[in-house]
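Researcher: Can you fold this with S-adenosylmethionine in place?
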Amino acid sequence: MKLSEIVPWGRTLDEYRAMFSLSKADLSLKILGCGDGPASFNAEMTELRRAIISVDPVYQFSAEHIEQRVRATYQSIISQVKQNADRYVWKTFRDADDLGRARLNAMEKFLSDYESGKAEGRYLHQALPSLDFDDDQFELCLCSHLLFLYAKHLSLEFHIASLDELLRVASEVRIFPLVQLNGKPYPHLKVILKHLSSQGYSVQVDPVAYEFQKGGNEMLRISRPAGHTPV
Ligand SMILES: C[S@@+](CC[C@H](N)C(=O)[O-])C[C@H]1O[C@@H](n2cnc3c(N)ncnc32)[C@H](O)[C@@H]1O
């Protein structure tokens, strides 16, 4: 899949909290943000002195380049959202322009932290399905708006290999949302749940307090039982 096919928009810590039902205790874990892109999650967590590393293929680019790309796609994304306004829940955001402003604010926060975060090793250029981390390096991995959402671009094999890899490096993985870009449920969820259970992982689909895409209010929580070594 070409990187240009994925919307380069980022969300905030408050949104991550809601998407992943993050408790105070969760925020104190060693966290990997997979596919964080221009989200302000890492910057805000760092301000709170939390342990967070984000990986994304866009981190191979400079701050200017990432900003240019976000701004270049801005109008077309906003018009698509306007055209399909009935697919979304307009509660947190009043309308498409309000949403756009929130996304640009998150990007600004990310950009102001990007250079120092890179120097500190908090923004790493890595990509699924293969990550350069030790087994069990993280206690929690969060992956928002990548797996399941881009079902048309990322194959079932890619999803399975990516989940296996995330569960190698983290003992718990949470994925949000479970719907595709068109708002329909990810079609291979059952196959994936069966695969994960067969590997000995506990899997759970949990309702969450975040719903922007209609019906996109569930996350998948997968955990590796204590003593179960990564496969
Ligand atoms: C829609 S954005 C979501 C950003 C952030 N997670 C959020 O929810 O605000 C998807 C991100 O996934 C990244 N991405 C694309 N392919 C990836 C891969 N193979 N591994 C990790 N991240 C990837 C993109 O570069 C992009 O930043």
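Model: Folded with S-adenosylmethionine in place. The pocket of S-adenosylmethionine is lined by residues 3, 6-11, 34-37, 39, 56-58, 127-128, 144-146 (CB under 6 Å).
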